[in-house]
Amino acid sequence: MFQSSTQKRCWTFSSEKDVEILRQECNTRFQERHHLISAKRKDPGSFFLSANEEYILCRHYEHLLRDFCRRFEPPMPPSVKGTSCAYFKRFYLRNTVMDYHPKFIMLTCVYLACKIEEFNVSITQFCGNLSADQERAAELILGHELLVMQQLDFHLTIHNLFRPLEGFLIDIKTRFPSLENPEQLRKSAEEFLHRSLASNVSLLYSPSQISLAALVTSAGRQKVNIDKYVTDFLLSSGKKEDLKELVMSIKKIRYLVSNIPPLNIEVVKSLEKKLDQCLNQELNPDSAIYKKKVQELLDAEDEDFTLENYTQNEESKRREAELLMSV
């Protein structure tokens, strides 16, 4: 049930302002941790990405994520795309792109969503959909998987937008027979839901509210009136205040989905260059600093393993000697 879920309790916010505050706090923490780097610059204030610039980059990589899901072979069910987007949005409410580049997190979110939604593909099959170095991609995805789960607090079950829509259509066929051919509403409603993934509505409203907004939008385009279904069946036992609140929520959802600002590719390219300069190299798998740090950890593990083996061998020799002396 959504009402008792971690999605409702931990990842649904009362306003867009709350979401913006979380993103700003991540950005501020990063700048405070790395202020010595920017202090060496002539214009330290413009060295880092702002919270809004980060959000633009996130929106760009979300677009790439959705496109990757759309082109994936074998074809993905919509639930995988919905879950992937939810993971990606949540991750960057707690982290900054200046610590973790979206190109790595994006693919990791999709791969993790495949597992959770039981869309069974191996890492080899998954990376077969990439044109880049597939072996390296697999290494990076698996290397980031635990990080993503930790940052999501292991809240991996997502109540997707697409399931309630199916429920509404079945309910209309069963309880609202006066509407001929409810299936005519499906295509436009599904398009609305896919488009909504590019907005923040999934962080603000329940899946059923978003699906109902999709259905109402589709009905309007088909010149079909489903007001009676909403008032007489969905809210037959509710109060007038409940109806007013639902109507207001649907209006806000439709507004947010229909007013998604377009991405400017030139702005995105400029921000990509800026990110390359301020990216935390200690967490960048492609950097020399990161590779050196990983190698040092591996060397330390080898030393610990050798020392442990040496200690165990010495202990075995001592026990053998004691045993021979006791004979």
Notes on the protein architecture:
It is a single chain. This protein is mainly alpha-helical. The model has no long low-confidence stretch (mean pLDDT 89). The chain has 15 helices and no strands. The radius of gyration is 26 Å and the shape is globular.
Structural class: mainly alpha
Strand percent estimate: under 5%
Helix-strand sequence: HHHHHHHHHHHHHHH
**Rg estimate, integer Å:** 26 Å
Helices, by number, come to 15
In total, the number of strands is 0
What is the overall pLDDT average? Answer: 89
Distance between the termini: 70 Å
Helix content: 55-70%
In terms of per-residue confidence, which ranges show pLDDT below 50 for 5 or more consecutive residues?
A: none
Overall shape: it is globular
Taking the sheet with the most strands, its summary is: none
Brief summary of the model shown:
This protein is mainly alpha-helical and 327 residues long. The protein is built from 15 helices and no strands.
